[in-house]
Amino acid sequence: MNIINTKQLFKKYGSVPVVKGIDLTVKKGEIFGFLGRNGAGKSTFINMLTGIIHPSAGSFSLFGMTGPTDEVKRRIGVMPDYSSFESSLTAMGYLRFLSELSGNKASKEKCLSVLKKVGLEGEAHKKTGKFSFGMKKKLGIAQAIIHDPELIFLDEPTSGMDAESVIQIHQLIRELNSEGKTVFMTSHNLDEVEKLCTRIAIMKDGQIAKIGSMDELRSYYQSTILVKIKHGEIPTSEVNQLTEWLLQSGEGLEMKEKHVIISVNHEKRIAEMIRAFNQCKVDIYRVEVEEASLEEIFLDEQTGHSIRKVM
Ligand SMILES: Nc1ncnc2c1ncn2[C@@H]1O[C@H](COP(=O)(O)OP(=O)(O)OP(=O)(O)O)[C@@H](O)[C@H]1O
């Protein structure tokens, strides 16, 4: 079932187009990652879906419904990009106040359990005006999930958080997802997106340049399996032959004293390389295979320069 469906969604500010006609579907149960450089249009896209701004053209539906109906508002959770909390309220007071505004005041127990999930259990009675940036972010996530929404929008959920908090929020996102909730998130932390997201879209110039699972994104790029082989002594008589065979298997061969690095475009080539070592009677001690990371795919997409090709 499609939870998000956009058709040629378009936004311009003045005469400047920012989101240039995006068609996107997100299914129930996905953790969807939305990537792009600063200013690519990610927040603008989310703000259209969450009803904060109006599209200039195109349409979208959430849960099959068009327009920001009360039902849609109940079923989505939105984390503010930056949080300007009312400083005189405590974290608990803030959550209760917001939930009351949306028509379903959360109990103290519910607020405490959500504050615990985001790692703010010790700060429940502290005034939000005294919160650090990372704590405000956590409170923003608590705000997004306090009413048990089915679809949660998280705009850069972990930016500015310490390492322990990042791990905690990753666990929370996985937990929410295992409860059947759909998460739509943006992040500049590519490692985080690679670890968490079931599907990823890379935005470029207001459009989606690439979209898919990590495996699908990798398949768009050829020559991206990097193979490192640690080996024993190569008999002098075999060096030329081995080099020739290795070069036939892949490209960009780097040969050091006891290891070679080569990039290949198919895993079959790895078997060919191992055969070449055997035929030249060279022992293999270790084979490391590195597929393209999201960071590499992202850089490749944005700049057109692959950083993984061996020279
Ligand atoms: N209210 C506005 N009026 C005019 N231009 C705007 C407005 N909001 C955003 N923009 C412009 O739209 C473009 C996209 O901004 P947006 O915030 O959507 O990018 P983003 O991908 O979320 O960036 P970041 O990663 O830095 O958060 C930017 O060039 C920005 O300057």
TrEMBL record:
Presence of keyword Transport = yes
User: Where is each ABC transporter domain found?
Assistant: 4-230
> Which Pfam families would you find in this protein's record?
ABC_tran, DrrA1-3_C
Give the family from UniProt. Belongs to the ABC transporter superfamily.
Organism whose genome encodes this protein: Jeotgalibacillus terrae
Output the CDD domains linked to this UniProt entry: ABC_DR_subfamily_A (cd03230)
Q: What is this protein called?
A: ATP-binding cassette domain-containing protein
Q: Which domain of life is it from?
A: Bacteria
GO terms for MF: ATP binding
Q: Which UniProt keywords apply?
A: ATP-binding, Nucleotide-binding, Transport
